[in-house]
Amino acid sequence: MGRGAQQGYEPTRRAMLAGGGALAASVGIAGCTAVTGPAPLRFWATSYEGDYSPLLMPDFTRATGIPVDVQSVPSTAAHEKMLTAQAGGALPDVMMLPSGWIGEFAMIGAVMPLPGPALAGDVVPGALAQTRIGDRCYGVPWSVAPMVQYYRRDLLAAAGYQAPPQDWASWRTMARALKRRRPDDFVLLSLLNWPDTLITMLFQTGATLLRDRDTRGNFRTPEAQAAFAFYLSLYREGLAPRALSTEVQDAVGAFAQGFYAIWPSWPTAMLDFERRKAEIPAAAWGIARMAGPDGPGPASRLDAALCVSATTPRPAAAWALVRHLTSAANELRFQRLIGNLPARQSAWTSPQLATPLIAPFAAQMREPNPAPRVLEWERIKIEMQLVAERIVRGLLTIDQGLAMIDTRVDAILAKRRALVDAGRIA
């Protein structure tokens, strides 16, 4: 767990280590000189972003004189922690939010809109739209993360394939060939409590998930039927394990050992493989876009943005920190550190990103992001995942499951429906 929210400045171990020399110099041998200077800005981020953000802060502090206290928040606890901090008036000055959360945090008054258009300029297509509520943007895109499939080159080559086919029928033919060669292993790892593989399949069939001005579920359609049928077939044929993330303790290790040959995941998986190249050398794996019914199409994305708390006492300094972190240079540095892909369009002219491994991501980013633009989208994803798991486990048919999702989504959208009917929102 990360450190708790701090109302004032409480020196952390990281801050003390970073500032130890300056502290000793300012105190002097007699130890009677008080330390002066601005209190640190507080910054929260999740996952690798939180772990590696301290490496981006020294340049900001040197340029501005303002230290930054970084808190790495576990991704599984981030949503609840930030909502609790908002309720208690303890949000940090700057925070990283998945783009799908920004509408919710803007609605409850937790984050402030951008002070001007300059901060949001030079952003890759589609990333900025996820931060816009009405005619204002509430975050600066920091990274883009479309889903792709990582694959074992050696396992596919043994079955006669250089790379995964890009349409569903051919992909399934390949998967069956892999399964015949290795009947005790699986082809695909798609964890039942992570819905993004299924969401990608829905996007690629062209399914429109909401109807009636985004106030009701729209899952009982031929497109959604096709996506769920293909998804279910992967488990029924034994191509994917009926497993939760709690049952797969080391996904990278399982991939390295060949327990499965294909893993839909995000850009940061490249860092995991690089760290463990003794187990899985770079020549053993590759990256391809996700297959679709007739070829690749839109895919699920986990873009992130930086937002400034509506209650920060130092908005100018907070926006300066956002500007620093989202510069093309720092986004490229982060790409080297953790694999995250830059949201700044100008960063994509760098030779650093002109590699075969990055090419599938670059192509995927040119696809639109068809995720519904409603505040309730994260809750809808959870309900869809819960019902999809019941379908996979044989507790519901696809027809029963799609009807249940529509019912649950209609309940989630009841308040939105009332506001739309009353003309209070478009």
What can you see in these coordinates?
This protein has 426 residues and is of the alpha+beta class. The strands form 4 sheets. The protein has a 6-stranded mixed sheet. The protein is globular, with a radius of gyration of 23 Å.
Predict the CATH topology of the largest domain: D-Maltodextrin-Binding Protein, domain 2
How do the helices and strands follow one another from N- to C-terminus?
A: HEHHEHEHEEEEHHHEEHHEHEEHHEHHHH
The residue ranges in which pLDDT falls below 50 over 5 or more consecutive positions are 1-34
Write down the Rg: 23 Å
Describe the strand arrangement of the main beta sheet, using strand numbers. 2-1-3-12-6-13
Percent strand equals: 5-15%
**Backbone shape:** globular
Reconstruct the topology from this structure.
Elements: H1 13-27, E1 41-46, H2 47-52, H3 57-64, E2 68-73, H4 78-87, E3 94-98, H5 102-107, E4 132-133, E5 136-137, E6 140-144, E7 148-152, H6 153-158, H7 168-181, H8 196-205, E8 210-211, E9 216-217, H9 222-236, H10 251-256, E10 262-265, H11 269-275, E11 285-288, E12 304-308, H12 315-325, H13 328-338, E13 341-342, H14 359-365, H15 377-392, H16 398-412, H17 414-421
Parallel strand pairs: 1-2, 1-3
Antiparallel strand pairs: 3-12, 4-5, 6-12, 6-13, 7-10, 7-11, 8-9
Helix pairs in contact: 8-9, 15-16
Name a few traits of the molecule.
426 residues, alpha+beta, D-Maltodextrin-Binding Protein, domain 2, 2 domains, six-stranded mixed sheet, three-stranded antiparallel sheet
